């Protein structure tokens, strides 16, 4: 009977030790969680400059369908997938973003075309966790527009005479005897 009590006592002691250890680990994990006052400041979003802080906006352009393309520079392949929201005075516009295949730092977002010159609020959210990654308010200062290329047939010209070039050229090559050294012309002088 004392043997059973000893085993039962050891089991209870181990169980209590396991519970206390689990509580201590939980408290340690909880204390490491970021609190509001400990969060990393939100990235400021703006135009790229010679020493860009990423993410930043490289340019605005318009595709053939009239959609606006916003071109971003990011930190690289490990930057999270994201989407862009642009807030105007009365609405929020959603832009779908895709990474450029061969350039890990380039991302382009497509959505509604907005007027140039007005100031908008730009917000980048991570696609998976819906976390705000960066934001900024600034105007769209310029936009590359698609211009169609028109290829017109050649216009007839006056019947001017075109000089006719000979169809064959005769060239006389000097003959060099085996074992002799070719002579160079005097002009231009060779070193």
What does this protein structure show overall?
By secondary structure, this protein is α+β, with helices and mostly antiparallel strands. Among the domains are: 36 residues; 97 residues, Immunoglobulin-like (Sandwich), CATH 2.60.40. An 8-stranded mixed beta sheet has the order 1-8-7-4-5-6-3-2, with no helix packed on it. β2 and β3 form a beta hairpin. About 6% of the residues have low confidence.
Strand/helix succession:
HEEEEEEEE
CATH architectural label of the domain at 43-139: Sandwich
Percentage of residues in strands: 25-35%
Query: Which blocks of ≥5 consecutive residues have pLDDT under 50?
Result: 33-39, 169-173
By CATH, the topology of the domain at 43-139 is: Immunoglobulin-like
Helix content: 10-25%
Number of strands: 8
In whole angstroms, the N-to-C terminal distance is 113 Å
Q: What gyration radius follows from the Cα positions, in whole Å?
A: 37 Å
What's this, in brief?
The protein has 191 residues and is an alpha+beta fold. The chain has one helix at 2-32, and strands at 43-44, 56-62, 68-73, 82-87, 92-99, 106-111, 119-126, 132-139.
Write the topology of this structure.
Blueprint: H1 2-32, E1 43-44, E2 56-62, E3 68-73, E4 82-87, E5 92-99, E6 106-111, E7 119-126, E8 132-139
Parallel strand pairs: 1-8
Antiparallel strand pairs: 2-3, 3-6, 4-5, 4-7, 5-6, 7-8
């Amino acid at each position: 009977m004392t043997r059973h009590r000893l085993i039962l006592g050891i089991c209870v002691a181990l169980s209590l030790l396991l519970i206390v250890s689990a509580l201590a680990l939980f408290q340690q994990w909880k204390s490491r969680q970021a609190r509001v006052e400990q969060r990393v400041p939100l990235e400021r979003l703006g135009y790229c400059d010679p020493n860009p802080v990423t993410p930043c906006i490289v340019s605005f352009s318009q595709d053939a369908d009239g959609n606006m393309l916003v071109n971003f520079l990011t930190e690289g392949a490990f930057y999270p997938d994201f989407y862009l929201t642009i807030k105007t005075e009365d609405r929020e516009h959603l832009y779908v973003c895709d990474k450029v295949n061969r350039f890990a730092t380039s991302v382009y977002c497509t959505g509604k075309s907005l007027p140039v010159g007005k100031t908008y609020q730009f917000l980048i959210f991570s696609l998976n966790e819906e976390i705000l990654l960066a934001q900024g308010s600034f105007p769209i200062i310029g936009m590359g527009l698609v211009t169609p290329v028109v290829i017109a047939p050649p216009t007839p010209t006056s019947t001017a005479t075109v000089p006719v070039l000979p169809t064959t050229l005769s060239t006389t090559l000097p003959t060099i005897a085996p074992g002799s050294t070719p002579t160079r012309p005097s002009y231009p002088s060779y070193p």
